Amino acid sequence: MKCSILAAAALGASLIALPAAAQSAAATLPNAFDEPTPGQGSRIAAAPATTPAVAPDIARSEEALRAAIVAFQSGQVDYSVFSPNLAAQFRAEGPELAPRVKAYGALKSIDFVGQQDGADLFRVVFANQATDWVIAFDDNDLINGLLFRPARD
Fold first, then answer.
1. What whole-number distance in Å separates Cα of residue 124 and Cα of residue 117?
2. Coil/strand/helix, residue 130
3. For 18, 19, 60, 94, which has the most beta carbons within 10 A of its beta carbon?
4. How many alpha carbons lie under 13 Å from residue 141 in its C-beta half-sphere?
């Protein structure tokens, strides 16, 4: 997976990726956007059709994701919620990131899709774009993985 947010945006790619240092620190973060190997099945466990209660870690992930989206759209990012490596990446590339997330329009919904190796996958629908997001935390409860791309379906 490529490591530069700007490179992905500049090349018209549909994915914003983690920096290499954060990837090595978060070796268990799944590459949830890749297609599974034939016969392997889904790489992300599907969310149950009906969930009687939202697990606290899913609620925490959704809350952190919602806050990150609002921060990116407003250009008022609190970098203290990110691991040092991810914060440095976002600081360096924030001027390109904020307009991109803002262009998606108003946030309409966030739905949990699945989980793998501690990372959570969400479908986030904005006024102008449906997207898929993956979020993961380190042992200090900082966001050390945050990827998104336009939804493919």
1. 20
2. strand
3. 18
4. 4
pLDDT for position 148: 92
Distance in angstroms (rounded) separating the CA atoms of residues 44 and 60: 19
Which are the contacts of 92, defined by CB distance < 8 A and separation ≥ 6? none
Quote the pTM value: 0.67
Cβ–Cβ under 8 Å, residues 142 and 83: yes
Question: Degrees (nearest 5) of the Cα angle 92, 150, 67?
Answer: 55
Q: What is the pLDDT of residue 95?
A: 79
At 137, give phi and psi (nearest 5°). Answer: -120, 155
Contact criterion met (CB below 8 Å) for 33 and 8: no
**CATH numbers and ranges of domains, the chain:** 5-31+55-150 (3.10.450)
Reading the block at residue 133, the tokens are 């997001």
**Please, are residues 138 and 27 in contact by the beta-carbon 8 Å criterion?**
no
Q: Which residues of 67-103 are buried (b: 16+ CB within 10 A; e: fewer)?
A: ebbebbbeeebeeebbbbbbbebbeebbeebbeebee
